[in-house]
User: What shape does this take?
Amino acid sequence: MTAATASTKATTSAPDPADSSTATTVEFRALSKSFGATVALDGLDLTARPGELLALLGPSGCGKTTALRMLAGFERPDSGQVLVDGQDISGVPAHRRDAGMVFQSYSLFPHLTAADNVAFGLKMRRTGAAERRKRAHELLELVGLPQHADRFPHQLSGGQQQRVALARALALRPKVLLLDEPLSALDAKVRVTLREEIRRLQQELRITTVFVTHDQEEALSTADRVAVMRDGRLEQVAAPAELYDTPATAFVAEFVGTMNRLPGVMADGDVEVLGQRLPVRGAAPAQGPVDVLVRPEALEATADGEGRSRVLTAAFHGSVTRLTLSLPDGATVKADVPSHRAATLPAGATVTVTLPQRPVLVDGPTA
Amino acid sequence: MTLRTKAPAGMLAALPLVLFMLVAFGLPAVAMLTGAFSTSSDAPGGAQWTTANLTDSVQGAYLTGLVSSVKLSALSALLAAVLGLPLAQAVVTSRHRALREGVLAASGVLANFGGVPLAFAFIATLGNAGVLTEHLGLTGAGWSLYTFWGLVIVYLYFLLPLMVLAITPALEGLRKQWREAAQNNGATGFQYWRYVALPVLAPSLLGGYVLLFGSAFAAYATAAALGSGSVPLITVQIADALSGNVLVGQGNIALALSLDMVVVAGLVMAVYVPLQRRSARWLD
Assistant: This one.
C-alpha cells in the first residue's frame, strides 16, 4: 500500500481535523535572544495566522531555528514574548506547551517501536494502553506506515522515520505543529514526496504550522506565507508568489530564486539600464550608479544580427533554456527563454536584451 | 583470483594474534583444566584423573570464599554503577572542557590504581591506626577497614572511575533531540530519564556493571595486601593454596578454584557480549 492511499483512507479516523475557526494564532513579539556575543534574534515581530503553514526561511545563523525553539520552549527569550492565541507562553516549560515538533533527524527513541514512539506522549499523559495503541495505529495509517508499527527506528528508512516523527508530533493533537528542517537529511526524491505529504496533512488538519527551512524551493512550494529572515530580523513576510515577484529588499530578491545584477544609473527617480529608462520600486538613491535586480525570466533576449550582446552558453532545463549572456559592458547575466525558442539562440549568437516596462528593484549605496 | 590470494594473506596477518592466544590463553587454560581434574604428581600413585578437586572447591571454606567473592563483587559493582552514572553524566554535560578532560584522565589512572599501593593508602588513612580513623574517632563508631564493607569501600576506589570510563561513551551517545522530543511530548526531566535515557542506556549500564563485577571478582593484590582474614576471597584462597600457606600439596585445588572462577567469568561474559551488541545497535 502506498503512503498516499493509506493516508487517504485513514483521514476519517485521523486526528481531529481542527476547524479553521478554532485554529491557533502564533505571534512572536519583539523577540530578542543572544548567545554570548552572537545576536540570534533582534526584535523579531512575526505572526502565523490560524491554520496557515508559515515557513521561516533564511541562511544559517539568521535566527529561524532559535525562533522555532523558543516557540517549542527549548530556549527562553532575552526579551519579547511568544504568544499563542494571545496568551504569553514565554515562561511555560517545554513539556507543558501544546506544540508538536518534528526535528531535523534522529529524534525517534531508538529503543521503542514506531507505534511506541507515536504513543509516547500519550503514555506521559497516562492514557490507557488500549487507547494508546488505537491512536498510534490511526496516526501511523495517516502517515502511510501502518505495516511498520512494530519496527524499531533503525529498521526504517530516513523518510519513514520522519513520517513516524510527524505522527508522534500529531499524537497529542497539538495546537501548533513545528517543523525544524525535517527534510534536510533526506535524499532529494524522498524530500519532495514528504513535503507534499506534510502539506497535504497540514491542510487536512488545518493546524497552524511553523516550518523552518533554508531551502527556498521547499519554502516556496509548501508554505502559505514565507518569512525571510536575516541576522535575527525579519526581512519580508509574504505569499510565495509575492515574495518572488516583488521582493522588498535586495537580500530577499537574491535569496529567493536567481537574480541578475545589471549596472544602471539613477536619474530623476528612474533608472537607466540596458538603454531603457524604468521606474524604480522601493528605496533607491537619488542619483548615481546602482545595481538593477532582474529575474532571468524577466530578461528578453531576441536574436539580432546587429545585437551588441552575445550568448555564451545555453543550458536546457526542460520547458525553459537558461542562457548566459555577455552584455555590451562585459557584464554576464542569466536569461530564461522558452526551450522552443532556444534553437534560434545558440551559443555565439548575437542578441538584443531588453526589459519589460515595469518597476524594478535597485540596490545602491542608500537603497 | 583475488579471493584466493586474499584469504591466506588475511590468515597470515592473524597469525601473531593466534600465537599469542595459544601461549597466553590456550596453554594456561589446558594446564588449569588438566590440573583441576587430576591429582598431584607428588601424590602416592602419581597423577591420576579425579573430580575430587572440583568437588572440594565448592565445599566448606572454599565455597564460603567463592560466595563471599561473588557477594563483594556484586555489591561493590552495583554501588560503583549507581554512583558512577551521575558522576559520568556530570562529566559529559560539563561546560568546562578542562574539568571534563581532567576527570576522565584521573579516572583512567584511578581505575588502574589497585593492588598494594591502594591497600597501603587505605591502611594509612582508614586502617586501625589510620589518620582519618584516629582524627575522626571512627574506631569508637565501630569502623574497621578489615571487614566486608571496608573492602567494598576500597574496591569502590578503583571501580567508580572504571564505571565513569565505561559509561561515558554511552552517555555521549544520548542525543539532545531525544531529550527535547521527550519534553515536546510532555515528559518531565524525571520521565525522560525513566522512559528514554535509562532504557537506552540499560544495555551499557548492565555491560558496565558486568565489567565492574569481573574486575572486582578478579582483584587479588588489594585484598591480599590488606591482609584481611576476616573476609575470605577466592583469589586469596587460590594464592594460599598455590604457595602452601595453609596446607602443602593444594596446587590442584587452586587450579579447581581457578576453574570455578572461569565458569563465573564465562557466565559474566555470556551476559555481557549480547548486551554490548544490543547497545551498539541502538547507538549507531
